[in-house]
């Protein structure tokens, strides 16, 4: 499945918010908000940690009708190591590609439903964490 997005980012189940919004009394709909998911996709964590992320998106897919889900927004930090390093000079062993693959498993659940969603990149998704950890970046 192709990952459809406006940008990029994700979040924890306990922090996920599905808030009904009333435009008029007879037209209630839901906008789901999923914040930082980087700890679920983190390649240094057990693979099962991504199960929480997939459970979030599966819940939204399964309940889209009862929630009258209009849109889902991801508000930052999809992955932990967007630059693919662990902070050690020259080390690329953490591989951001593996973390993006974990994220895609969860996001594809929404994409398969055809529900609209948008994503915003967080600093973990694009910032060179290795430079920051060595004090070479602001």
Describe the overall structure:
This protein is an alpha/beta fold and 138 residues long. The protein has a single domain, classed as Trna Endonuclease, Chain: A, domain 1 (3-Layer(aba) Sandwich), CATH 3.40.1350. Helices cover 35% and strands 16% of the residues. It is built from six helices and four strands, in the order E-E-H-H-H-E-H-E-H-H. The chain has a four-stranded mixed beta sheet with strand order 1-2-3-4. A hairpin with a 5-residue loop joins strand 1 (17-22) and strand 2 (28-34).
Provide a compact summary of the structure.
Helix content is 35%, strand content 16%. It has 138 residues and is an alpha/beta fold.
The H-and-E topology, N to C, reads as: EEHHHEHEHH
CATH architecture: 3-Layer(aba) Sandwich
**CATH topology label:** Trna Endonuclease, Chain: A, domain 1
Fraction in helix: 25-40%
Beta-strand portion reads 15-25%
Query: How many beta strands in the DSSP annotation?
Result: 4
Structural class: alpha/beta
């Amino acid at each position: 499945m192709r990952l459809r997005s406006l940008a990029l980012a994700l979040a924890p189940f306990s922090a996920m918010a599905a808030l009904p919004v009333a435009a008029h009394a007879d037209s209630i709909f839901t906008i789901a908000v999923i914040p930082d998911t980087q700890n679920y996709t983190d390649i240094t964590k057990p693979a099962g940690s991504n199960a929480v992320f997939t459970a979030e998106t599966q819940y939204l897919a399964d309940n889209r009708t009862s929630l009258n889900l209009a849109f889902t927004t991801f508000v930052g930090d999809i992955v932990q190591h967007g630059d693919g390093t662990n902070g050690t000079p020259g080390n690329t062993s953490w591989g951001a590609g593996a973390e993006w693959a974990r994220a895609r498993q969860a996001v594809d659940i929404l994409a398969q439903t055809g529900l609209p969603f948008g994503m915003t990149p967080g600093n973990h998704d694009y910032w060179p964490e290795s430079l920051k950890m060595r004090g070479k970046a602001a």
